[in-house]
Design brief:
The protein has 15 helices and 2 strands. The chain is an all-alpha fold and about 290 residues long. A two-stranded antiparallel ribbon has the order 1-2. Strand 1 and strand 2 form a beta hairpin.
Length: about 290
């Protein structure tokens, strides 16, 4: 089964929990709305790519780890779109969750998706329980404090912000979780995989900042110009358009160089370079050529 099919199957199995008898039906509907139809699934695909590079000897745990990271990502998008943050009208080409279901259910659905991420991993650890602590600790660290996505979002409430710290926590935390959890699910020493995830997370954030600056909302399925409108720290403001493109290219090269020894490192290197090219907005691709 290909990676995307594995991810969708694991996500569907996890979200089906919310449809069990006795669960509030509109909450279940809101959770499903937040997760499907799928976005790019970059983080869970990265998790499975690392698992593949490490031998993928426990697909069930790798799939659950990938799904948990995507559930956390979806929860962060629900909360990020709320009126108290971006007040976004659309997400993935459709009304944002709070526009479709109201703010109370949006908050609760985001919270429920965070908890569901841990349930998914716990349910999949039966065959290799010794690997569970590392995967759970990785998932927890990526979402909480001091360096998870909650901390990253909180930097927007501070007067003085270090752009690298902000990006590493708001975006890089889940990318680091993807690489670490992919290795941990296979029983590999997982700490060396953090650098790869953090570099890819920063690269993705730079690409996202570029899309926010130059893309069309119909093309990317969400509002653009949000960084400037909300005064958020971003790579385009820090480096300019051309500088941000160069930063993206540098980060992709550093990421490839950081891959720890593993049986299928070549496959992973090729995937990273392909994704880096794909992430560059079309409007800027010619300038980078």
């Amino acid at each position: 089964m290909d990676a995307v099919s594995r991810i969708e199957r694991a996500l569907a199995a996890a979200v089906d929990r919310a449809d069990l008898r006795g669960s509030p039906p509109r909450l279940a509907e809101a959770m499903r709305y937040a997760v499907f139809p799928r976005g790019a699934r970059i983080r869970p695909r990265l998790c499975l790519a690392v698992a593949h590079a490490c031998g993928d000897d426990n697909p069930a745990l790798a799939d659950a780890a990938a799904a948990s990271i995507e559930l956390l990502h979806c929860a962060s998008l629900v909360h990020d779109d709320l009126p108290c943050f971006d007040d976004a009208d659309t997400r993935r080409g459709k009304p944002s969750l709070h526009r479709a279901f109201g703010e109370p259910l949006a908050v609760l659905a985001g919270d429920a998706l965070i908890v569901l991420a841990f349930q998914a991993v716990a349910d999949a650890a039966g065959a290799t329980p010794a690997r569970l602590p590392a995967v759970i600790a990785t998932v927890a660290g990526s979402v909480g404090v001091p360096h998870g996505i909650v901390a990253g979002q909180a930097w927007e409430c501070e007067e003085n912000v270090d752009l690298s710290v902000y990006q590493r926590e708001k975006t890089g935390a889940l990318f680091a979780a993807a690489t670490i959890a992919g290795a941990a699910a296979c029983g590999f020493e997982h700490a060396p995989w953090r650098a790869l995830g953090e570099l890819l997370g920063e690269a993705y954030q730079v690409a996202d900042d570029l899309r926010d600056a130059v893309s069309d909302p119909d093309e990317i399925g969400k509002p653009v110009g949000q960084d400037a409108a909300h005064g958020r720290p971003n790579a385009v403001a820090a480096f300019g358009l051309d500088g941000a493109v160069r930063r993206l290219e540098t980060l992709a090269g550093l990421a490839v160089a950081s891959i720890p020894p593993c049986p299928r490192a070549g496959d992973l290197r090729a995937l990273i370079l392909m994704e880096a090219r794909r992430l560059l907005p079309h409007q800027l691709a010619a300038r980078a050529a």
